[in-house]
Write a structure and sequence with these properties.
15 helices, 78% helix
């Protein structure tokens, strides 16, 4: 922006095209050579070096990643000591770390790192040696690397998926409460971090089931955190999706809780009064009011159920105007509500 574009001469443009054609010709020749060697099951050191060269140019060439692993398994590892194998794998981890800095969202780089971890041999050896020593060193390094990746881009879902893999595969697992603290840090830095909210939904059940956290107390604290996020940015989808998960845990761990649904409905209505026209407030009210009527209509009574249903249909009509691209979806939700009410009346 604001930089004047310099018009290149025809000679300069032609020279650029020649350089590009030469690079393409070199790339195609390298690709043909590698694929030819692969077909011949050539596991030589020269072939391994060619895969290194190609992957530095094009890390998305997954066939070359597969070929590289075949060379290791068929020719390199059988002739090396466990210590040498570990050193080789560490070099590939360094190589892919460099690649990730330029290409943080290429599946094949992450896949190769996972493969390297899984090939780590027992060791270091010797009397009194820890058989998990190399593994723990490599896995801890991976956790450090993926942490740095998420510092650069906190929403990189490749890194979050890989982080989950590392945490579940470590020879000696970290306490789940540590990961809970990590998600808290990421969410406090940005309420819009959907991946951090998702990670949190994976950690909470583990902490509840192991009684590390009291379900009722921690859930209430979590509702407070989510309300803060809602008021900070009521149009942030990630917070509302997580809120639905959190409400759902009431049914999983504590049984149906009508009072909680009523409380959350009232809180969202108060937010909607301040943020008139908030799509996510309206959609959430539709969802929770429908859930309340379906799960607790006997306790609510006909009059209250009818009031909630009428308000839900009114919200759906407003959403049709506010979000016309999803008009038919809102109409379908309204028709489902009407059909459910008719069926309930018929069944008495």
């Amino acid at each position: 922006h604001g930089v004047s574009r310099v018009k290149q001469s025809q000679a300069a443009l032609e020279a650029k095209r020649r350089r590009e054609r030469a690079k393409l010709k070199e790339y195609l020749a390298l690709s043909d050579e590698i694929l030819s060697r692969k077909r011949r099951n050539d596991w030589s050191t020269e072939s391994l070096d060619l895969t290194t060269k190609m992957l530095q140019i094009n890390p998305e060439f997954y066939t070359v990643w597969n070929y590289r692993r075949d060379i290791y398994l068929n020719a390199v590892f059988p002739n090396r000591t466990p210590e040498q194998i570990n050193e080789t794998l560490e070099k590939d981890l360094v190589m892919t770390t460099i690649a990730l800095k330029a290409h943080p969202k290429i599946y094949w780089i992450w896949n190769h790192r996972r493969w390297c971890l899984e090939q780590t041999p027992d060791g270091p050896g010797g009397e009194g040696g820890d058989p998990h020593g190399w593994r723990m060193k490599n896995w801890k390094q991976e956790l450090f690397v993926v942490g740095k990746m998420l510092d650069v881009d906190a929403r990189n879902f490749h890194a979050w998926n890989y982080r989950r893999y590392v945490l579940t595969s470590m020879p000696v697992k970290k306490p789940d409460i540590d990961e809970f603290a990590y998600t808290t840090k990421k969410i406090q830095a940005s309420f819009s971090n959907f991946s951090a909210w998702h990670q949190r939904s994976k950690i909470y059940p583990l902490l509840w089931e192991s009684n590390v956290l009291d379900h009722k107390k921690s859930r209430e604290e979590e509702f407070e955190l989510v309300r803060n996020a809602m008021y900070t940015d009521p149009e942030d989808q990630s917070v509302w999706v997580y809120h639905r998960w959190l409400v759902g845990t009431t049914h999983v761990f504590l049984g149906e809780d009508a009072d909680l649904l009523k409380r959350e409905i009232q809180a969202i209505k108060e937010l909607l009064e301040e943020e008139a026209g908030s799509k996510w407030c309206m959609e959430s009210l539709v969802h929770y009011q429908t859930l309340l009527v379906r799960c607790h209509y006997a306790a609510l009574g006909d009059e209250e159920c009818e009031r909630l249903r009428a308000n839900t249909l009114e919200l759906l009509q407003q959403l049709e105007v506010l979000d016309p691209l999803r008009r038919q979806r809102y109409r379908d939700l309204g028709e489902c509500s009407i059909r459910h009410e008719s069926y309930r009346r018929l069944c008495g």
